[in-house]
Amino acid sequence: MSQSNIDLPARLLLNLAPWRNAKAWHIAFSGGLDSTVLLHLLAKLAKTESLPPLSAIHVHHGLQSVADAWPDHCRSVCDALQVPLHVSRVQVQPGASLERAARDARYAAFVEVTRANEVLLTGQHRDDQAETLLFRLLRGAGVRGLSGMPRQRRLGKGYLLRPLLDATRADLEAYAAEHQLSWIEDPSNLNQHFSRNYLRHQVLPVLTARWPQAIASMARSAGHMGEAQGLLGELAQIDLSQASTPGDFDWLGLPSLELAPLEKLSDARQRNALSHWLEPLTNLPDRDHWSGWEDLRDATGDARPIWRLAEGELHRAGGRVWWLSGAWLRPPPAVGAWPDPALPRVLPDNGVLALTGQMPDGPLQIRYREGGEVMDLPGRGHRDLKRLLNESAVPLFVRGRLPLLYKGQQLLAVANLPGLDGSTADGWKLCWQPPSEDQGLS
Hints:
Keywords: ATP-binding, Cytoplasm, Ligase, Nucleotide-binding, tRNA processing. Its EC number is 6.3.4.19. One of its GO terms (biological process) is tRNA modification. It is found in: Cytoplasm. This protein is of the alpha+beta class. The chain has three domains: 3-228, HUPs (Rossmann fold); 247-324, Chorismate Mutase Domain, subunit A (Up-down Bundle), CATH 1.20.59; 336-433, no CATH class. The protein has helices at residues 3-6, 8-16, 33-45, 70-81, 98-113, 126-138, 143-146, 169-178, 195-210, 214-243, 259-263, 267-278, 291-298, 385-391, 396-399; strands at 24-28, 54-60, 85-89, 118-121, 152-155, 158-161, 256-258, 306-309, 312-317, 320-324, 336-337, 345-346, 352-357, 365-367, 374-377, 381-384, 404-407, 410-414, 422-423, 428-433. Strands 3-2-1-4-6-5 form a six-stranded mixed beta sheet, with helices on both faces. Helix 6 (126-138) packs across helix 9 (195-210) and helix 10 (214-243) crosses helix 12. The chain is elongated and about 90 Å long.
């Protein structure tokens, strides 16, 4: 028995010390070796230590018939350890990567059970970290990817923790043998069609035969990369603080940055700052697909550049770059009559509209711009709406969804634009709360 195996419970407690005040600890319990050891360790520690309430979650993917027996196995293990078990049955969406689709379904189930001030514990260990590093290296990952699996990260409203990352698979096997634990052997783990299994069974044994410390060295490199990524994050925050200036259209509620401070940075610092900013919003492109950013950045003033990404689009307007997703990418449906202007009006796919102050005489209608609109302004006469929008520097992507208030064929007001949004003399104003849901923010 190795010295490291003897210290496994103590090391686990040390790694989890900052999280002892969490409301609950959920254990991701597949029934395999790693999660079985983690569950057993925590159940034993709970008898002598004051720990948050423990529970286990088993995700049943339904991808292979043999897996139908796994929930019963997990239930018997949890019953013996007196740990409550939740079984979550998920649908794995078909796609190019079955591994990724299953992972996405699994983590969606984890998010569902992990509430605020709760943590989900998973059993990944140092060998898994080495596999992750090697797998990402072969895919050409950057510093963020090569930092491997983080020890902790946000998960929905709670956190995901990997408290066994400094233990080896051999440590876990020795603990399981000592305590005569039984676990599930997933047949798919032998299928070397899956890249990680190929690395585990074919590549890493060759590496460790030549360099016995290879796994420890790779895990250490992942730690160095994690530290480097932290420094890049701090640099990004410095650069983003220069670009996160207030603008005239902050009321849109859209993420935006001032372009000029970004343009002063080197290309590498631009990519670093934007990656940091975009990471919570969308999947990021690899290094070879940043030409969309360069086209947007370098476009002439009268161009309408758009950089399309996985979960939305980056637009350029008014000296700023804007993140659009969800409802902002769909033209709002027509609205029509406003029967009771005293009540706020929900606009399909376009937020909420309200009139404040003395109500104008009706009947009133809500429309969107089609072109050719004219507005009669006190002291200025008839003015083209297009020119008025240009004078107000309204971003082009907003113009087609700005609510317009009509009485018959007369354009009375344009929501939210000072001087155009109502009547000072009559004491009313048209106020628009743009769409805030389905923005793609996480």
